[in-house]
Design a protein that fits this description.
Blueprint lengths: L1 H15 L13 H4 L9 H9 L21 H9 L10 E6 L2 E5 L4 E4 L11 E6 L9 H7 E10 H7 L3 E3 L4 E4 L2 E7 L15 E7 L2 E5 L7 H4 L6 E5 L8 H11 L3 E5 L8 H10 L3 E2 L7 E3 L9 E5 L8 E2 L8 E4 L3 E3 L8 E5 L4 E6 L8 E8 L6 E6 L5 E7 L5 E4 L11 E6 L5 E8 L4 E5 L2 E5 L13 E4 L11 E10 L6
Parallel strand pairs: 3-4, 4-5, 5-6, 10-11, 11-12, 12-13
Antiparallel strand pairs: 1-2, 1-14, 2-3, 7-8, 8-9, 9-10, 15-30, 16-17, 17-20, 18-19, 19-30, 20-29, 21-26, 21-30, 22-23, 22-29, 23-24, 24-25, 26-27, 27-28
């Protein structure tokens, strides 16, 4: 009862005081607010939050995404905004290339139109086949994913050809394995390859509170226009035998999925440029996936998922551990762990002579929007904080202290003579802790310090120069004399633009 009263008072204060409802910079996901991952935001999560109140505990420091190092009212606000929100199982989706999709939770694995596979996982509980064409119905690939427990649900003509399975007709719904499968008519309206009379289909899979639509080979039909409550839609965008990019983008304006993913490109028909055109025209969020890429329901609406995070809280050893994808940093030159002197718990101290750490590849700056944030404490000017190698032998200094005034700058820029560094007037070299950041949103660069914008491009620029190597912490990656001197802490890289 005491906790209920405290929470009610806290919620009232948040709603009526100057704190307000604080907007966060990332989409709310199950892992953000359902702190114990039991499927609902409730007093158990509130209890976990209060247990670490006014402490630096990363797992419970849920607002903002860049981390302010303290569990406080901001985090309670995020919890209150999502009070009693229910989450289903986390759903994973993998695009296997062309028109093949894998969907799964901890309890069930589903394949839609498996084809052109190179592995044999034999892990399918359910296989869905939209129609008979060989790039969708492949007996060999069905065998590669099938196990003793596998069920097949397919268009009637596929069941006839395969000699087994359960037929499904357009408009029909089948409940099986605790999920719901609905067949959506899939046919051409201005072509002849997929006549409506064949009763071929796309599928809506309802799994873990998500409705995932794999359209199959189809044009923009009246049945597609009438769809509702679609969370993720795989739409063919290659043209020739299906909708093209413009038509697929038009489709998103009718049934408005939360997220659309172009497919049926990259093999025989359709190219990356078709997928990109779709992304430019679609009236919803779009994710262009790489073949084999996996997304999940706890982050597929994130504009900027956290893709690497070095807490730098180790106490010994020569490895700085990344807590997201295992992109660990290897220490060279003997930087010193300072477990008691960090801004957020521990930190890593560099001597400015020969100390640095290097990671494997994290991202290519030319690949799209991204952000990096870190805590820094230094009194030395003209030093590189974070940089990246390039196979051509050049370096890209992501963040550094300018000479002669010690102001924050970045040398990430466009290629050619027009490219120039972005500099600020904010001096970092006062020996105090500062939270610094670089953000690239696809058209402008930003520099941040202590939660404020300190520099921005005056006009839009084109893509940043490409770089394909790992990150260097504390050096310029080329063995020069501008090694960093001071403390680094809590380095985070996001796969999109995160603004404080």
């Amino acid at each position: 009862m005491k906790k209920i009263v405290i929470f009610s008072i806290a919620l009232t204060i948040i709603q009526t005081s100057g704190f307000g409802f604080i907007e966060t910079s990332r989409a709310v996901t199950q892992r953000t607010v359902d702190l114990n991952l039991d499927g609902i935001v409730d007093f158990t999560d509130y209890g976990l939050l209060t247990k670490f109140w006014l402490r630096n505990e990363t797992q419970f420091d849920i607002a903002p995404a860049i981390g302010d190092g303290l569990v406080d009212w901001k985090d309670l606000t995020v919890l209150a905004n999502n009070w009693l929100t229910e989450f289903g199982e986390i759903v994973y989706i993998q695009w296997l290339g062309h028109a093949s999709v894998k969907i799964w939770t901890e309890n069930i694995v589903i394949y839609v139109d498996p084809a052109y596979l190179t592995e044999s996982p034999n892990d399918a509980d359910l296989i869905l086949i939209t129609h008979n064409h060989s790039d969708h119905y492949s007996p060999g690939d069905i065998a590669r994913v099938s196990g003793p427990q596998t069920k097949i649900i397919a268009a009637a003509s596929v069941v006839t050809s395969h000699g087994s399975g359960q037929a499904i007709l357009p408009g029909q719904t089948i409940e099986t394995n605790g999920i719901s499968i609905t067949a959506v008519p899939a046919y051409n309206i201005n072509k002849t390859q997929h006549p409506k009379s064949n009763n071929w289909v796309g599928f809506i899979t309802e799994i873990g509170l998500q409705r995932i639509y794999c359209a199959g080979d189809t044009d923009l039909t009246d049945e597609m226009k009438a769809l509702e409550d679609i969370n993720v839609a795989f739409l063919p965008a290659g043209g020739t035998y299906t909708m093209n990019a413009v038509e697929a983008a038009e489709a998103t304006g009718y049934f408005k999925p939360d997220l659309a993913i172009p497919y049926h490109w990259g093999r025989n028909i359709g190219t990356l440029s078709d997928a990109q055109q779709f992304a430019e025209l679609a009236q919803c969020r779009v994710k262009i996936m790489d073949a084999g890429e996996i997304i999940s329901s706890d982050n597929w609406l994130d504009d900027a998922p956290l893709i690497a995070y070095w807490k730098l809280d180790e106490t010994e050893g020569d490895i700085a551990y990344d807590g997201i994808e295992g992109i660990n940093g290897i220490l060279y030159g003997g930087p010193i762990w300072q477990p008691e002197d960090g801004r957020l718990a521990g930190a890593l101290e560099f001597d400015g002579t020969d100390d640095f750490a290097v990671t494997d590849f994290v991202l290519d700056p030319s690949g799209g929007p991204f952000s990096i944030y870190a805590w820094i404490k230094t009194d030395t000017i003209g030093r590189v904080i974070i940089s990246q190698t390039n196979s051509s032998g050049t370096r890209r200094n992501w963040l550094s202290t300018n000479s002669p005034d010690g102001t924050l700058m970045t040398e990430l820029k466009t290629a050619g003579r027009s490219g120039k560094s972005l500099t600020s007037e904010f001096s970092l070299t006062d020996g105090l802790w500062h939270h610094i950041g670089f953000v690239w949103d696809g058209s402008c660069r930003y520099l941040y310090a202590d939660g404020s914008e300190i520099a921005k491009d005056d006009s839009h620029i084109t893509n940043l120069e490409s770089s394909d190597g790992g990150l260097y912490f504390g050096s310029a990656a080329t063995g020069t004399d501008d090694y960093f001197a001071g403390l680094l802490d809590d380095i985070r890289v996001f796969g999109g633009a995160i603004h404080p």
